[in-house]
Fold:
Amino acid sequence: MKKYLSIFNISLSQEFAYKMNFVMWRVRNVLHVVIAYYLWTTVFADPGRTVFGYDQAKILTYVFGTIIIRAVIFSARSVDVPQEISEGSLTNYLVRPMGYFKYWFTRDASSKFLNFAFSIAEFGILAAIFRPPLFFQTNILYLLAFLASIIIANYLIFVIRFIVTSVTFWIPELAWGGQFLFMVIVTEFLSGSIFPLDIFPATWQTIFYYTPFPYLIFFPLQVYLGKIPFPQVLSGIAISVVWSFALSIILRSLWNKGLKSYEAIGR
Amino acid sequence: MDKAIIVDHLVKNFEVAIREPGIGGAVKSLFSPKKKTVHALRGISFTIQTGELVGFIGPNGAGKTTTLKTLSGLLYPTSGFVEVLDYDPWERKSEFLKQISYVAGQKNQLWWDLPAIETFELNRAIYEIPDRDYEENLNELIELLDLGKILKTQVRKLSLGQRMRMELTAALHHKPKVLFLDEPTIGLDLIAQQKMRDFIYEYNKKYNATILLTSHNMDDLTNLARRVIVINEGRILFDGVLEELAGRFAKEKIIKITLSSEDGIERIKDIGKVKKMAFPEVVLSVPRAATAVAAGEILQNFPVSDLTIEEVPIEEIIRKVFRGEKR
Structure:
């Protein structure tokens, strides 16, 4: 345990070595919310209006909620792993007595911690400026389910990211591009972080719910907003847990195969 | 003495994908990959005793690095048997990894943006180094490698020589029993190279550590390793004491003569192959068996003020070996 606490600490110091990078990344996140805010306040200009089952308070809570949820779910240092595989510095980790996945999970956790702290502050500032009507969930069951879904989401994103990363073992040149294509476009879009997924037709939504992606952002927020009946909350959690197990198995076998073919020649 | 490393008929093949360029080629190779097999190691065998310092020599692509990587558990052997400190390296058990270290000249484990001391602290946790040993080992390494002043400097701001010494400190902090060094002196200036060699020598002596190193630098080998393993195209060409390499592969010896007069200097050509002739110095190469006779003849017939018999320089022998001029 002490091992991973040390990793957490050094990872935090590393983040501070790139202060400007970090600030720019946060600015990007804030902009994301500001844009969404203006879009949705226009749609909900009339305060009594409901669209796709959202009233003004709920949609704005969704928008402002994404700032914190995104910080917790999408922040990661393990985005650097594909490059480490393609240029061979993975070697450094393999010859040391520590778990590689645990190492990166810890480093991601430190990044999430830092981003979470900042996102809370940003949330406070933005809320003070725009004074949006916000929705506060008071049902303890929903809050607990929300917490559970956040934990599962963190695990899911980690596994998904490493599955995408594994491709680097076979196609090193795709290292960064693959991540970008998959993580930014597919995952952000299908996770509901750009806009809530219930604007899609019902059949699409049903299909989405069987993929792991909505459980990253959309589902936790739906739970928080109390937009789905509790039995459906439980079945959602069940599906995401099944995905967690299934994807873990896939990752392990991919990764072990990858390691065997790691480092072709010349290094 | 017990054996630290056992390698028996080790074979390692790589499947290298051949692919057309571009993203289209990449996608195509994903579904119907074309592959070529590269034979990096074609069945090598050797054993190394605890406390030995062994040098691996070979041209690029000979299989040196592949061997080291297989021994440190990075590569999965295609076939054959490998054992290091009674462990199968590929399993990468913690107890095994805590006793070895793998240092490659071009790779770094130090955190680039932080002072090296941060990496040392991290390694303290990763290798679970007890507090007392941590201080003691670190102080010793700092003194030996002269690092006191730059411990708190960001790694990115260190010179290559300084960084390599830091890397070595990071790699040795947990006092590994087996050390794999891949090109430890690459890119270093002559003084830094010498410092590095002195240190490796010291470490080997002091802790009776088993050290395997690869190098292109002949000085590394002549100064450090008593035993060398010459490897080329995945096969071991020679395994033994460095001096024997000359006896085995050099068909000739070198006679260096200093003459006191130029009289009849031309006749010296009949005795052996002239490698250099610039009065008063003459260098001849003569067949091994005929060395004594040739030397006697020279002493009798020429105004010699000095004469020495030497082995062909090790670099030259190795160059010959690699060019395929065997025996």
Summary: Chain A has one domain: 2-261. Chain A touches chain B at residues 2-3, 5-7, 10, 13-14, 17-18, 88-89, 91-92, 94-98, 170-171, 173-174, 259-267 (CB under 8 Å). Chain A has a mean pLDDT of 87. Residues 2-261 of chain A form one domain.
